[in-house]
Amino acid sequence: MNNNKPLNGIKVIELSTYVAAPACGRMLADWGAEVIKVESDNGDVFRVFGKGLDVPATDEENPLFDMANAGKKSIVINLKTEAGIKVMHDLIADADVFLTNNRIKALGKIGLDYETLKLKYPRLVYAIITGFGDKGPEVNNPGFDTVAFWASGGFLADLSIDGPGSYPVGTPAALGDISCGTTLFGGVMAALLNREKTGLGDRVTVSLFGAAVWFMGFMNTIAQKKYGYKYPRTRYEGNPVAIPYKTKDGEWIMTSILEYERYFPSLCKVVGVDELAHDPRFISKAALLDPENRKTLVKILEERFETKTSAEWIKLLTEADIVHDRLKHFKEIAESEQAVVNNFISEFEFSNGEKAMLPRPALQSDNLGTPEYTRGPLLGENTNEVLRSIGYDEAKINDMIQTNIVKGKS
């Protein structure tokens, strides 16, 4: 076990639910921080979220919750009481980071807004994920990534394939959340580094909508009225050498040729249409700006790719050094040798003895090594321990448990 992690000695108080901020907290815990997750008596609703996605969501086996909350501690505090708010402030008083994705308005009502905490704890790094940002007409709107990231960001409407009976693409589950959490991790790191120079904390924030605007910046730049790139597009308006093609075995192969004049002749040779490399309709990227030329080439390549299996095409394309892959299925990732040997995914054993392959944060460090994959905390599992660490004696802890200020072991 690595006892010299970069964030050893850093304390994080996390007041969050679902995935976005918890994903940031998970990464902070992996890198050595003590992350204390503050929950209500009912707990983070994400503890039971897996039930709707065909995975267990119990204390003994909870893969989705564990993925976002591995390595943390849990304390239950009733923040609807003055005594509970005092406990929260006692936790924050010696913390380095306050991490949340609660709405700004709700935080203000209980005195956990940035303006209040900044005055009390000037060294605190205040890290918050919002739906739509700090200002504007949608500032107080709730925002899961399905709406604030995927719908509001343009992806669902414009990256569907335009055709008869087409629908917007299905929402990728929690991808926007985890992207935001990972981004916020970087902001927290920079704020902690700057605190070493200035002695002062900072407020760092990421919004789901803002992240969508940035992550999809290529698309929303070329689509603006000034440039006018068309979305959504039909299949035949796509780049013929950078779209998927169906193969003989029903799988799909994706090529990605950016240096067209350099690699197109090699692709022609691989698919058995050498003559196309000299066809004036396809000889250059400029020629492919003609819609009819583009449509014709797509149809030719569609016919060719259906003559061999995906495995046969992978061998030929690899030998030709053309960027490509088969469109993988989510269910395959758990068995991906590439993912396993790089520790992108690891086998995890739950307390009931069941095992599953769980993804890891992608950011790696030679000094950090591969962090131990521990389960997420049970609800209120660490309440007593955490309270003792900030100076509460057993009598006080028991009194707060009896009066429903906190939930722990009496």
The rough form would be described as: elongated
Distance between the termini: 32 Å
Using only C-alpha atoms, the radius of gyration works out to 26 Å
Helix content bin: 25-40%
Q: Give the low-confidence spans.
A: none
Number of DSSP strand runs: 12
Strand pairing plus helix content: what structural class? alpha/beta
Beta percentage is 5-15%
Mean pLDDT score: 96
Task: Give me the number of helical elements.
Answer: 16
- Report the sheet with the most strands, covering strand number, pairing sense and barrel closure: 7 strands, mixed
* Spatial strand order of the main sheet: 6-5-4-1-2-3-12
SSE string, helices as H and strands as E: EHEHEHEHHEHHHEHHEEHHHEHEEHHE
